[in-house]
Amino acid sequence: MELSRLRHGTELLKRGFAKMQKGGVIMDVTRAEQAIIAEQAGAVAVMALQAVPADIRASGGVARMADPAKIVEIIEAVTIPVMAKCRIGHYTEAKILEALGVDMIDESEVLTPADTYFHVDKRDFTVPFVCGARSLGEAVRRIWEGAAMIRTKGEAGTGDVAEAIRHMRLMNEAIAIVTKLDDDALMDVARRYAEPYKRLAEEVRAELGMPLTEDTPVFREYTLLEVAEGLFEVLKEIKELGRLPVVNFAAGGVATPADAARMMSLGADGVFVGSGIFKSENPEKMAKAIVEAVNNYDRPEVLAEVSKGLGEPMRGLEARKLLEKEMLQVRGW
Amino acid sequence: MKVGVIGVQGDVEEHVVAMRRALAAFGLHGEVVSIRRSGIVPSCDALVIPGGESTTLSRLMLKEGIFPEVLEAAERDVPILGTCAGMVLLAKEGNEEVAKTGQKLLGLIDAKVERNAFGRQRESFEVALSIPAFGPEPFNAVFIRAPCYVSVGAGVEVLAKLEAEKTLKITKRECIVAARQENVVAVAFHPELTNDLRLHRYFLSLI
């Protein structure tokens, strides 16, 4: 067999990787010992971080990609996939994570955004990406840019599931409407979804006193119409499938087995648990309970059993009481 | 006929859809169900263990009481197909990665399995794989953090392998990527992610 015939980094491989995570729990970890606890508890992957979102929120300052030494330490500790976060639009952090052998990159609002105009063009990578979304528009833009997995943004580091539920509901409701639209109406939605891509081109031309013409590239070589056409194709796929064409996880505030099960019953393909495990009183028990809750989300008697005696969950913050500038979900578009 | 897909974790829906398509294509009547708890495996005429994380699958199958039911079904010669993580669980013996996590294997194929045999996700690949039992046309095989069998016992039929190569991670020796022992079939790739139904045809003929 000729090696040249091995194809790497295809769309099928990226989306396929995410599909293997379905029905699973992905846990935030900051040390090798935590990664091993997560693996033993039945996590399908771990997210290697410098600090969990609750601590990032508390400490303030600029949150960046984790120390590569830490990521390598975690990669070497477990056999399950290891994910890591890069800042929104930080192409170079993403390339570093790819070079480290990270299995999936989370372009995450939990870190301080690096590029106020654009997210990473994820098609330039061999490894798959997961991206947060609060609405169908954000999800469609990220999928067009090459994301192989979407997760709700929720409100990370709060332990309050309300925002994750809100984002999942917003997305489900929008998908239900999209499935009934004809091509013309779908193209109107695509044009609307394309609008944020023109901000840089528009801002610069406004300063120069020049108009934004139809043949002006706005994002890399793409004109606004070409972006809209790309988004239209994603919308058509959503219409045909009645769901996102990539795996859609819940994230941002999941803190208990009941929270995880609630997200599954709203149609999530799996859950990310950030601070909820290692900020709880008994991480090992909590991790196992959440894994079992995801598999048994529709069996209240099992959920009752696994929820018993877990100790204190993370303390938490009521997400709706945060000021907009304190919210992580408003980062990215 | 009833085909059960172990549904505790992994690309379960993809397997259910592919199996339904296969039944329809070959004019077979039957249902395909996803299994997340005990009590359903005993009524199935064939079983599929999907791709996913083998550590998670193994743990949940034990917790839910599905693990012993699968062993019992194998004793009754119920055909079992394992893909990727499923291939890991079907093996008798694991490499150090398997030992490290303490995951339990079903041991239905006399083989030694190596988890993540080709490397990490960036090394995952698609390839036109020659599987003589399926005819001359190669199979578009999708390998995602895939395992392989590094050795098999005399009772195991090797259906496909990737030959030893000089570069990449496929260096060591030959990697067995499809194998069968009596009614149990293991493949390292994901036939449920492509449209080629020849593996399904082969598997369903065992019922």
Please explain how this structure is put together:
The complex is a heterodimer of chains A (333) and B (207). Chain A is α/β, with parallel strands linked by helices. Chain A is built from 14 helices and eleven strands. Chain A has helices spanning 11-19, 32-41, 53-59, 68-77, 91-100, 136-144, 162-178, 183-194, 199-208, 224-241, 257-265, 275-278, 283-295, 300-306, and strands at 7-8, 25-29, 45-48, 82-87, 104-108, 129-133, 149-152, 217-219, 222-223, 247-249, 271-273. Chain A has an eight-stranded parallel β-sheet. In chain A, strand 2 (25-29), helix 2 (32-41) and strand 3 form a beta-alpha-beta unit. In chain A, helix 2 (32-41) runs parallel beside helix 4 (68-77), helix 8 packs across helix 10 (224-241) and helix 11 (257-265) packs parallel to helix 13 (283-295). The mean pLDDT of chain A is 96. Chain B is α/β, with parallel strands linked by helices. Chain B has a single domain (2-204), classed as 3-Layer(aba) Sandwich (Rossmann fold). Chain B is built from six helices and twelve strands. Chain B has helices at 12-25, 54-63, 66-75, 85-90, 96-101, 198-204; strands at 2-6, 31-35, 46-49, 80-83, 91-94, 109-114, 125-129, 139-143, 148-152, 157-162, 175-181, 184-187. In chain B, a hairpin with a 2-residue loop joins strand 11 and strand 12 (184-187). Chain A binds chain B through residues 1, 3, 5-10, 12-13, 16-17, 19-24, 39-40, 42-45, 79-81, 98, 101, 103-104, 126-128, 291-292, 295-296, 299, and chain B through 7-14, 36-37, 51-53, 55-56, 59-60, 63-64, 84-85, 97, 100-102, 115-116, 120-128, 130, 142, 144-145, 162-163, 165, 167-168, 190, 193-194.
